[in-house]
Design a protein that fits this description.
single chain; Peptide Deformylase; three-stranded antiparallel sheet; 8 strands; about 35% strand
Length: about 150
């Protein structure tokens, strides 16, 4: 597959709402694989959303060391608890901040084959799911930061 260029803060595309993916075809599979390759080419990324590579589609790829999770048209359907977290972002390098996220989430999505599934995440996975789904709605972690941390 191919590496895609990551878009950075200031690029208007990061503030736009992504469109649902309605048709699964080779273009979507290529997009997902390219997102995975791009994610794996970074030093410390755990996930990437399609807008971060300039594509306004509702697609997310997560790899927190336990295998790739492909999420197409993800939707948070339930949350529980709260946790204070520290986040950064591939699109905002070298900036980190504290913010509050749910401590547990349940997300409904489609996998890379177009099959619906539900994933539950707590702790870091919950944080990651929320962060990436925010990207699909043009929301960046800096919009929710309660305290920026020194680099």
């Amino acid at each position: 597959m191919a590496l895609r260029n990551i878009r950075f803060l200031g690029d208007d595309i990061l503030r736009k709402k992504s469109r649902e993916i309605e048709k699964f075809d080779n273009r979507i599979l290529t997009l997902l694989k390219d997102m995975a390759d791009t994610l794996h080419s970074t030093d410390n990324g755990a996930a990437i959303a399609a807008p971060q590579i300039g594509i306004l589609k509702r697609a997310v790829v997560i790899d927190m060391g336990e295998g790739i999770i492909y999420l197409v048209n993800p939707e948070i359907i339930e949350t529980k608890g709260i946790q204070e977290v520290i986040e950064g972002c591939l699109s905002i390098p070298n900036r980190y901040g504290k913010l509050v996220r749910p401590s547990w989430v349940k997300v409904k999505a489609l996998n890379e084959k177009g099959e619906e599934f539900v994933i539950e995440g707590e702790g870091d996975l919950a944080k990651c799911l929320c962060h990436e789904i925010d990207h699909l709605d043009g929301i960046l972690f800096i919009d929710k930061v309660t305290e920026f941390l020194e680099e």
